[in-house]
Amino acid sequence: MRLEGIHHITAITGDAPRNVEFYAGTLGLRLVKKTVNQDDPTVYHLFYADERGSAGADLTFFEYPGAAPGRAGEGMVHRVVWRVASEAALDFWAERLASEGTATDRAPGSLRFSDPEGLDLELVVEQTDDPPLTAAAPDVPVAMALRGFAGVRAYSSRPEASRELLSSLAFEPGAERSWEVRGERRGSFHVYDEPPAERGRPGAGTVHHVAFASLLEEHEAWRSRALEGGAQPTPVIDRFYFRSIYFREPSGVLFEIATIGPGFATDEPEEHLGERLSLPPAYESLRARIEPRLTPLPDPRARRRAAAAAGAGAPS
Ligand code: ZN
Fold first, then answer.
1. Has residue 1 been placed in a domain?
2. CATH number for position 208
3. SS3 94
4. What is the predicted pLDDT for the residue at 176?
5. What backbone torsions phi and psi does residue 20 show, to the nearest 5 degrees?
6. Separation of 205 CA from ligand 1 center, angstroms?
7. 3-class DSSP state of 201
8. How much distance in Å is there from the Cα of 311 to the middle of ligand 1?
9. Rounded to 5 degrees, what are φ and ψ at 221?
10. Ligand 1 center to 10 CA (angstroms)
11. Domain tally, the chain
């Protein structure tokens, strides 16, 4: 029994419109689900992914409007790393990010930058044969597109403390402080870096948790494995698009194990993912009251598609 790499990563935004502009506009991901926080339906839970909303490419944000900036520290994921196909793709992103006002740090095989709220991101040239998970942005050639997560980097001053639990979750130890979690179809890395001196502070631009992918039929068994490894997992929670358990691992990182499926097409057709507000069944009867209270969001994909079409049709 193996986990299929990262399922999704969830972070915090204090500025949902700017968040949509960056991830669905600048980075060319698809906004595959626009829903509300299950505990507070006055704020969004936004999901960006590849075109199909696949596990392995899904970055999600809880919206806390106006949230103070956070800071990654001990026990927190501090960097999200995506795969791209080539050095040429890194050059493409370095140029595109610069033209849209984002500073980058280019090195062989790597491009580092931060989102508008300070969340650290990195693109790396992929080292695997995992099927690419790409979105169809109108202004990003598919050869340049982000191809799903390579992994996450977290801070821990005592990564050895996590060894027993990660081993019971079938993570494979790699080089010092690094682990690989790989199943039949996909894998990703999980690395611990030495933490900064300053304490972490949750807030805008920080990661809330990282979820690893389980086959539907193995989910309960993974809960047992987590218990055996010394964790205290929650009961299984139905998130409608997947089922989840949560627990904190000994280095302090909040882990989730989420099922691959039922998926984002359970409540709207795949060709229209994320276009309208999706509500959990318990809130559907309140739609008329909930929808007007939410922050209006831009649609950068539609705007860029129109701009690309206008550009292609313009006389040169
Ligand atoms: Zn989650």
1. no
2. 3.10.180.10
3. helix
4. 85
5. -65, -45
6. 16
7. strand
8. 39
9. -65, -35
10. 6
11. 1
